[in-house]
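Field: sequence (string)
Field: structure_tokens (string)

Example rows 1 and 2, in order.
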Amino acid sequence: MIPMTHMTPKELENCLEKLDISNEEFAQVLDVSKAAVRSWLVGDRKVPATVAKLVKFFNNFPKMLSEF
């Protein structure tokens, strides 16, 4: 079984900074609302495991971000 991936709001913020991508751009990449991204960043909602996995993937392979 593949372990769940957890990400704190601060980890998400740090990853987006490292990728040099704005919250709005990230929302567009994921095809989600800016409000969803904001709610993850302030801790109102948990960062979904799929989003955490994608962010970690993009941090390992930043050039792939342009493919989205």
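Row 2 begins here:
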Amino acid sequence: MDASLFVKFLPAFGLAALHTMELSMLALAGGLLLGFAMNAMRETGPRWLKPVYWFYTGVWRGVPFLVHLFISYFGLTAIGLTLDPFEAATLALVLYGGAYFSEIFRACWQSIPVGQVEAASAMGLSRRQIFTRIQAPQALRMSVPLIANQTIILVKESSIASIITYPELTFTTTKIVSETYVYIEPYLMLALSYWLLTLTISRVGRAVNRALSP
């Protein structure tokens, strides 16, 4: 093992880590918004929208992410929509993450004692008021650990974007290996990079959870 190679490859891995975090954080932000909106639609919308929720979450959770990525990058060209690797990976990850965040929010909403909802309803609050004033604050607080865990999964799933040549950590490692025929050092740096990213997310999640705890 050549320790000097770690220093040599560090700039490339630093840039790749930024690309990975850019993709993952956009997927997190978009997925959270989509997941919250889908659950809000299921909770407060008309009954005919519920099958839309179950169809979306069922398809996106039931099909491997790689298939969704290929559809975003290759399949959409059939309808005249051509996305670059970053756009295709972001779209696929947002929709993928949104399905899981939707289910996280649904589970947290359903864990709120029914008595609170019944009492609010007896006081004359509408379904929308109950959702925003009673259910949302509690459910969002309970969802923090689950959101942190799902964010870690999104970071690791972003490695699949290397298949469509998005220059994140895995793609950069593969490129370095193919150019230098060095294996141990690049793959150790790859493993260390993902470990540091997921460790950071885990600690941030715990800090937020402590801050929001009553």
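free_text_note (row 2): The chain has one domain: 3-212.
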